[in-house]
Amino acid sequence: xxxxxxxxxxxxxxxxxxxxxxxxxxxxxxxxxxxxxxxxxxxxxxxxxxxxxxxxxxxxxxxxxxxxxxxxxxxxxxxxxxxx
Length: 84
Hints:
Largest sheet: 3 strands, mixed
Oligomer: single chain
């Protein structure tokens, strides 16, 4: 789990000063030398502009980025990646 969700404004300021970047995916999964990025959203949740920009950076570098909207989607994605 990427630590990019501040608990308060003060915590957010501390995290930003420590190098947190807005828009970074919620989870990074490392498997067999590959990195996969997951953005967790509720059913109707939308990406911010910064999240779309991060997705573009990730995909242009050749990595996988996926928006996950349920536990079932997450479990399916992980099962597929673990069988590659």
